[in-house]
Amino acid sequence: MNEREYDVVVIGAGPVGENAADRAHKAGLTVAIVEKHLVGGECSFYACSPSKALLRPIHATRASQRVQGSVGAQVDPTGVLARRDEWVNRVGTSDELDDSGQVGWLDHAGIDLVRGEAKVVGERLVEVDGTTRLRARHAVVVATGTDPAVPDLPGLRDAKPWTNREATTSRRVPDRLVVLGGGVVACELAQVYAALGSTVTVLEQADRLLGRVEEFAATAVREALDRDGVDVRLGTKAVSVSRPGVSGEVTVELDSGDTVVGDELLVAVGRRPVSDRLGLDSVGAQSNDAGYLDVDERMRVKGVEGEWLYAVGDANGLALLTHMGKYQARAAGDLIGAVATGRDPDPDKTVPFATGLGSPQVVFTDPEVSATGFTADEAEARGIHTRVVDVPMDSAAGSGLEAEGYQGQARFVVDEARGVLVGATFVGQDVAELVHAATVAIVGEVPLARLWHAVPSYPTMSEIYLRLLEEYGL
Ligand SMILES: Cc1cc2nc3c(=O)[nH]c(=O)nc-3n(C[C@H](O)[C@H](O)[C@H](O)COP(=O)(O)OP(=O)(O)OC[C@H]3O[C@@H](n4cnc5c(N)ncnc54)[C@H](O)[C@@H]3O)c2cc1C
Ligand SMILES: NC(=O)c1ccc[n+]([C@@H]2O[C@H](COP(=O)([O-])OP(=O)(O)OC[C@H]3O[C@@H](n4cnc5c(N)ncnc54)[C@H](O)[C@@H]3O)[C@@H](O)[C@H]2O)c1
C-alpha cells in the first residue's frame, strides 16, 4: 500500500471539491484531491457547461429573430453540437472527454491529484482503489456530487435510457425523444432537442413543470415549450418501459393506458447522492432521509467525532447548484485553514448562512427564469407576513428595446414586518442577469425604502426594479 500524508484530503474533483481544495491550499495547507472520473465533475462535462453551450446559440438565434431589422439567423445543429464539444473539450471524432485543462489548473494551484475511487476507512484516513492510503492531518472534505436518479419502473433499466450524461454529450439528434420528468434538466434539454430537430414528448407526473419556481414562471416555460412543438403531458405517470433491442424504438406505457414511442428516452427525474458508497457509516456520519450527508452550519458532517469530516456541494443536498456548492466550499476551506493554522475562524467567512435564504437559480430555457430567495408560497410556509408585487416585464422600456413584443413577468416577495425583500422571480428573454441585484438586496437585508435610491439606468431591463417598487407604493 502506497501511503501519503497531507493536511487536507478532498474527495471528488467537481467544481465544489476544486474550490474547497484551492481555499485550503491558499491558507498554506498541503492538499490532495481524489477523482474517480473527470476533474471538473458532472458540472463541467455532463451538466452546466454542455447544456448552456447547447442552449446559448438557440437563445441568440431567437433573440435575433425577435428584433426588427435583423434577418437570417437560423439554428445550425452541426454548429451547435460542435460548440458544445469545444466546451467539454472533446477533440476530433473521439468520444472521450478530456480533463487536461482542469488537471493543469490543479497543477498550477499546487494541489496533488490522485486518480481513483476513494473510501473513508477510518478517522482522517482515505483509501484510493485499495492501493493508496491518504492520511489527512486536519480534514477530509466530501464533494462527491450526485448521480442521476433512475426510478424502479419495470423495463426501464433494460431499455438503456439516456440520463443527462448521454443527453449532454450525444452527437446524434434522435428523431423522437421522450423525456421522463419536467424539472430543470427536462425543460432545458427538451428545448435543446426540439430546436435541433427532435420531436419531443415530456412526461411529468406532477400537475405543473418546474416544481420549485413560482407557478407563473413555470406556466410561461410550458407555453414556450408548446410553441416549440414539445408535447408536454402533465399529471402523467409512466408505468413501464419496453425496448426490444439495446437500441431502436423505446415504448413508454402510461397509467392512462396510452403509450408514447421514442427513439431515445431521457430520464430526468432528479438526483441521488453517491456518498453511501464511501464507507462513512464506520465513522458515524449521519445522512438525512434522502441519503444526503447531514451537516451543521459550518458544513461539518453530523455524528462524526472530532470535527474533521466536511460535506459540501451536491453531497449534502442543501442546494443542488454549482454556485451554492462552491460558496459552501469556500467557507469550509477557510474554516479548515483557520483551524489548522491556529487562527480564530472568522464567522463572516466560515458560515455559509445564505444557503438558508433560498438559493439564486437561473433556468436557462427561452424564456429564462431567474429566481432568488423564497417563492411566495415558501415565504408564507415559513410564517413570514408577505406582500407579493407583480409587474409585467414590458413595463420597463429596456424590455421593448430588447425584443419586439417582449413578454415576461416579475415578482417581488416582501417581508412586510421587516420591509425587506425575501424573494424575487423574473421570467422573460435574457432575465438571467437581473437576478443578482435581488440576491444582493436579500442577503444584504436592504430596506425597500433604501433600495428605491438604487437607480437603474435608462433604458435597461433593470428598470423593472423601479416598476416593482412603484407598484409596491414607493
Ligand atoms: C443537466 C444539468 C444541468 C445543470 N445545470 C446547472 C447550471 O446551469 N447551474 C448550476 O448552478 N447547476 C447546474 N446543475 C447542477 C450542478 O451540475 C451540480 O450542482 C454540480 O455539479 C455540483 O457540483 P459538485 O462538485 O458538488 O458535484 P459534481 O459536479 O457531481 O462532482 C463530483 C465529483 O466527485 C467524483 N466522485 C464521486 N465519488 C467519488 C469517489 N468515491 N472517489 C473519487 N471521486 C468521486 C465524481 O466523479 C465527480 O467528478 C446542472 C445539473 C444537471 C444534471
Ligand atoms: N439551470 C440550472 O441551474 C440547473 C439545470 C439543471 C439542473 N439543475 C439542478 O439539478 C437538479 C436536478 O434536476 P432535475 O430536473 O433532474 O430534477 P428536479 O427535481 O428539478 O425535477 C424532477 C422532476 O421530475 C418529476 N418526476 C419525478 N419522478 C417522476 C416520474 N417517475 N415520472 C415523471 N416525472 C417524475 C418531478 O415531479 C419533478 O418535476 C435540480 O435540483 C437543479 O437544482 C440546475
Automatic annotation (TrEMBL):
Q: Where is the Pyridine nucleotide-disulphide oxidoreductase dimerisation domain?
A: 360-464
The prosthetic group or cofactor this protein requires is: FAD
Q: Pfam families in the record, alphabetically? A: Pyr_redox_2, Pyr_redox_dim
- Residues the entry annotates as binding FAD: K52, D314
Cite the FAD/NAD(P)-binding domain residue spans from the record: 6-318
Annotated GO molecular function terms are: flavin adenine dinucleotide binding; NAD(P)H dehydrogenase (quinone) activity
Q: Which UniProt keywords apply?
A: FAD, Flavoprotein, NAD, Nucleotide-binding
Q: Where does NAD(+) bind?
A: G181, G182, G183, V184, V185, A186, C187, E188, E204, G270
Cofactor, how bound (note): Binds 1 FAD per subunit.
Keyword Mitochondrion assigned to the entry: answer is no
Identify the InterPro entries for this entry: FAD/NAD-bd_sf (IPR036188), FAD/NAD-binding_dom (IPR023753), FAD/NAD-linked_Rdtase_dimer_sf (IPR016156), Pyr_nuc-diS_OxRdtase (IPR001100), Pyr_nucl-diS_OxRdtase_dimer (IPR004099)
Which cysteine pairs are covalently linked by disulfides here?
C43-C48
Q: Where is the signal peptide?
A: none
The family classification in the record reads: Belongs to the class-I pyridine nucleotide-disulfide oxidoreductase family.
This chain belongs to which protein, by name? Answer: NAD(P)/FAD-dependent oxidoreductase
State the species of origin.
Knoellia koreensis
